[in-house]
Amino acid sequence: MHIPDGLIPFPQYLIYYAISIIAIFFALRWARNNLDERAIPLLAVLSAGIFAIQAMNIPIPFGTSGHMMGAALVAIILGSPWAAVLVLSIVLILQGLIYGDGGVTALGVNIFNMGVVGGFVGFYTYTSLKNVNGKFAVFAAAWASIFIAAIAAALELAIAGAFPLDLGLFYMGGFHAIIGLIEGAITVVVVLAIQNVRPDLFSLEKKSNEVTSK
Amino acid sequence: MSPKNKKFVLGGIVVALVIAILAPFLASSNPDGLDSTMEKVMSNPETEPAFESPLPDYTIPVLGEDNPLGGVISLVIGTLLVLGIAYGLGIILKNKNKEENT
Fold first, then answer.
1. Which residues on chain A are in Cβ contact (under 8 Å) with B56?
2. What is the dihedral of CA A145, A149, A152, A157, to 10 degrees?
3. What is the pTM of this model?
């Protein structure tokens, strides 16, 4: 759901830039206070993997496709929504500047939707459900992260006058409710894989499983 | 880096690169959720990029738009670039924190 240039009036793009720059400031502060020897390799590998998998569009019904976003995955594994803001910012800035995937003027709004909204929705959905069932919490967090991010995009595009509110919400919500199933499935697989290989880095079983918890 | 971390990073890089190499062949070319919505609700869904990106849509212009090899190369470059940036940023931020604490 990379928003291109020219879809939202420029002054509104600037507002989203301002919000995202503040969010990146907090994300960098989180990184400075929490990254350690164990977390840095995770951060790097997750960033690279998310960049690659975002190019893997999977077909869904209605002649549409969708790809993994990754914000919930990062927030769950690294134990903070700010980690998602940091990783998605790195990925989106590169995609926008080098590959024309998402507009350069739309970078602020894309970081806001996928990093901030995706990261926070993913993280808090996970933490509120993880004591019910770990795997279900991961799936639900990933599904909600991309669904709510899409709803945010539909609202922003309605405010911009590009989309009608009702149809924008209907299609963005509908498509991403399906894409969310892909997001959920891949996120569960990756979380379980990391837990299998390195239970010292992440485990669904432990009560306090944040890599970076102090 | 500890041997355990080294192994984890190498494994992660291999997985990321395999995805990057396969994506140009396997990825669906259908419009994504946002593009599909744009086609459905807008009378003119065409937009112009604000500036010409060097590798538009994960292609390498000199190799031609439909050449999957361009996609493979551009995605491998991007994957390694993201890995390096994230790792470097992590090291810089961690060291900055150490300096301030001593």
1. 99-100
2. -170
3. 0.94
